[in-house]
Amino acid sequence: MKIVKASQELLATLNEVLSMEYGATVQYAQHHFLLSGPERINFSNFFDLNSKEAHLHALNLGSKIVSLGGVPTTQIAPVHQATTLSEMLAQDLTMERSALAAYVRAWELAEGNQILRFWLEDIIRLEQLHVEELEKMTAEQQSKVTANT
Ligand SMILES: [Fe+2]
């Protein structure tokens, strides 16, 4: 299959996402470090795992940018920190939504490069799951179930 080189706009968008994945790596790690109280029993590991996943996404993305003829950024997106679990989850939801939107922008710019689109779609599916989980954790999304009578 012919290799399709990426446009400057696509590379810039992928680099924007890379900086967000670096930011997510640090933000989740910081939430892992700072969370205290009984909630730490359940959520410390959640933040730890999400930090590692964001780091893996960053590494994959940097390699992909090089394959497409670009240079990976070393910039890290702004990191937000908090001391309560609810604030942390709200910050993480905002961050995940931004990353998802940027991945979708990259997908749009990848028109004509089906292989890259498939690759992006795999990540977009995972990022969407993160957003949906965080929407539930922050109770932004609640089911409309009513008790059976
Ligand atoms: Fe990610």
Please explain how this structure is put together.
The protein has 4 helices and no strands. The protein has 149 residues and is mainly α. It has helices at residues 8-34, 40-67, 85-109, 114-137. It is globular, with a radius of gyration of 17 Å. The chain starts with 7 loop residues before the first helix and ends in a 12-residue tail after the last helix. It has a single domain (8-137), classed as Ferritin (Up-down Bundle). The site of fe (ii) ion has 5 residues, from helix 2.
Please describe the structure with a list of short key phrases separated by commas or semicolons.
149 residues, mainly alpha, binds fe (ii) ion
CATH class: Mainly Alpha
How many domains? The number is: 1
For the CA atoms, what is the radius of gyration? 17 Å
The outline comes out as globular
> Which structural class do you get from the secondary structure elements?
mainly alpha
Contiguous helical run count: 4
- Order of SSEs: HHHH
- Report how far the terminal alpha carbons are from each other: 60 Å
Q: How confident overall, as mean pLDDT?
A: 94
Specify the CATH architecture.
Answer: Up-down Bundle
How can the largest sheet be summarized? Answer: none
